[in-house]
Every structure is written in structure tokens, then in C-alpha cells.
Write a structure and sequence with these properties.
It contains ten helices and 14 strands. It has 334 residues and is of the alpha/beta class. Helix 5 packs antiparallel against helix 10. The protein is globular, with a radius of gyration of 20 Å. The C terminus is likely disordered.
Length: 334
């Protein structure tokens, strides 16, 4: 693929709008179609962003021959169906995080992409951010030595009432999939899949997690203390400590503007980038780079890494007793 990359957007919510706005600032990208289960919603979105085609069903977008890649921005509960439909039609897919409801669904999408020979990537924008890529390089170079601990948190105060999607088990609600995925993905970016997982949570009457704490452990001796919440405004910071130093991210670690490197006997060193009004452009650029290079997955957001994060989220839910409708042993709200 060369020239302008033609995007289709599947869903019309807030994250779809933010991503579309960022795409429209990129000279090598064009949004040519949008789809929703509601024709009125799709048309309103198309009118808002000047998109030429609006579909009131997903299948029409998947069949659109002018679409090179589809961005799936539905709630988690629909990711398997929406992304699967597009992959089956031979479309490259960028699917929002959390990738799916569970690791089994994630594996099905990866298998389908492999079978059809098409590109698939999770929309983990944090992994594509220049400062996160710089952090990975520093750790790989041994700048902070062997990692011994990681900490990260992501919490919002809300309040989110019982009718909100974040409280709805059928939509994959709770703090973990929406917010906890970031601390978990941060830790696993640096340490890989953990060997031990412990967790504790406060659950809502609906059966989703409101506040969750996680302790992950690795055979190397490294550990990660992570938390997420939809009932508390947490610091939203992160740190990585090694045998030779540490790195600290201030509030908003998942879309950082800076981090500080501390090493014994040296002055703290700050790494920074200008404030970015279009943060989704990094992951969009990576998708387009991969497609032009003929790659079926991104080295920045590899599918095995996505599967590993989903396995950890599954294990955390197992520890805290959260099941979604249709899963084995699912919890009946009450």
C-alpha cells in the first residue's frame, strides 16, 4: 500500500471521534467511511467530520472496497464480533484496548488474522508513544540495571451511576478493562508476562470491579504494584526501579509529556516531548507504516504481548471474582 491510507471507523462514540479528529490531521490518512448499528448515528458522525460514506451496519463497512484499514472503537464486549467481521472480509484492523473481553476472544481474533493473512493490532497508544519507546531503549541498554519493581495506577473519581457502561457487566464494565489495562500493559512492556498474580477488589452490586489492586511477580524477583479505580481519583503516575536507578512518570503516565531518570551519583535527567494535541497519531502512523511494509503485526504492539496482557487481566478477574455474562461461572448481579 502506498499513497493515502483510507480508513474506516467502526463506532461513533467519544474515542472514535478523538481518533478520527487526529487522523484528519495526518496528510497521508483519509477517513472515507464510518459505520454504526444506527444509521442516524453514523450519518451524524459523517456530517460532523465530513466523511463521505455512512453505514447503518458493520457488514457494509467491512465490504467497502475503498477501505484499507478499519479502526474498531466499540465497547469491549463487541470487539470480537466487530473486528472478526472485518478480518473475515480481509480488512486490516486496529482494535481498541482492552482488546477483547477475555483471552479466549483475543486468541480467536489473532487466529483469524493469521488465517486470513491480514494485519491486526491492539490500539495500545501508550506503546507507540515516543517517550515509552525511549523508556524501553533505556531499560534494554541497562541504564537502570535489572528491574526490581514497577508501580502504576489509573483511577477516576466518577461517580458513575448504575446505568453507566462502566457499571454494566454485559459491556465489560469495571475499572480493570478500561483503566487497569494501562498499568498492566506498562508493567508487561518492561517485564513480560508475570509468573504470579494476586489481586483484591471492591465490587459493585452489578458484579464489576470498582477499585482493584494487583501484585504481579516474576521469577527474576521483580514485582509490580498496580491499581485501578472508577471511584477514586488516583495520582495516575508510574515508576520503574532497577539496581542502578529509576524512572519516574508524573500524572498521566499513559500519554506522557516527560519522565525523569534518577541514577546514583548523577543529577536527575529529564526526557520530554512537546504537548501533543493529537496523541492518537502515533499508533495510526505505526499501523500505516506496517501496512506499507507488508507487515501483519506491529513490533511495537505485538499480538503475543496483547494476548499476554489479556491472560493477566483474566487471572486478575479470576482472583477478584468478576465474570461477564456468558462466561463460565459468570456472576449473577445482586
Amino acid at each position: 500500500m502506498s499513497g493515502i491510507m483510507r480508513w474506516g471507523v467502526l463506532a461513533t462514540g467519544g474515542i472514535a471521534a478523538a481518533f478520527t479528529a487526529d487522523l484528519q490531521q495526518m496528510p497521508d490518512a483519509e477517513v472515507v467511511a464510518v459505520a454504526s448499528r444506527s444509521e442516524a448515528s453514523a450519518q451524524a458522525f459523517a456530517d460532523r467530520f465530513g466523511i463521505p460514506r455512512a453505514y447503518g451496519d458493520w457488514a457494509s463497512l467491512a465490504a467497502d472496497e475503498d477501505v484499507d484499514v478499519v479502526y474498531v472503537a466499540t465497547p469491549h464486549s463487541a470487539h470480537r464480533a466487530a473486528a472478526g467481521l472485518c478480518l473475515a472480509a480481509g480488512k486490516a484492523v486496529l482494535c481498541e484496548k482492552a482488546f477483547t473481553l477475555d483471552a479466549a476472544e483475543a486468541g480467536e481474533l489473532v487466529d483469524l488474522a493469521t488465517e486470513r493473512g491480514v494485519f491486526l493490532m491492539e490500539g495500545m497508544w501508550m506503546y507507540c508513544h515516543p517517550l515509552m519507546r525511549q523508556l524501553v531503549e533505556l531499560v534494554a541498554d541497562g541504564t537502570i540495571g535489572d528491574i526490581r519493581s514497577v508501580s502504576a495506577d489509573f483511577g477516576l473519581a466518577g461517580p458513575f451511576d448504575a446505568g453507566h457502561r462502566l457499571r454494566d457487566p454485559a459491556l465489560g464494565g469495571g475499572a480493570l478493562l478500561d483503566l487497569g489495562v494501562y498499568p498492566v500493559a506498562f508493567a508487561q512492556l518492561l517485564l513480560g508476562e508475570p509468573d504470579r498474580i494476586e489481586a483484591h477488589a471492591l465490587l459493585a452490586p452489578e458484579g464489576v470491579d470498582l477499585n482493584t489492586g494487583m501484585l504481579l511477580g516474576w521469577e527474576s524477583g521483580a514485582s509490580a504494584l498496580l491499581s485501578c479505580s472508577i471511584v477514586a481519583d488516583t495520582p495516575m503516575t508510574a515508576s520503574v526501579t532497577g539496581t542502578k536507578g529509576r524512572v519516574e512518570f508524573p500524572r498521566g503516565f499513559f500519554h506522557p509529556e516527560r519522565f525523569v531518570l534518577h541514577r546514583d551519583g548523577e543529577q536527575p535527567r529529564e526526557f520530554a516531548v512537546p504537548a501533543d494535541p493529537h496523541p492518537f497519531r502515533h499508533e495510526a502512523a505505526e499501523v500505516m507504516r506496517c501496512l506499507r511494509a507488508g507487515e501483519k503485526q506491529s513490533p511495537l504492539v505485538p499480538l503475543e504481548g496483547t494476548l499476554a496482557v489479556m491472560r493477566t487481566l483474566d487471572a486478575v478477574r479470576d482472583r477478584i471474582g468478576v465474570r461477564y455474562p456468558g462466561e463460565a461461572g459468570s456472576i449473577t448481579p445482586g
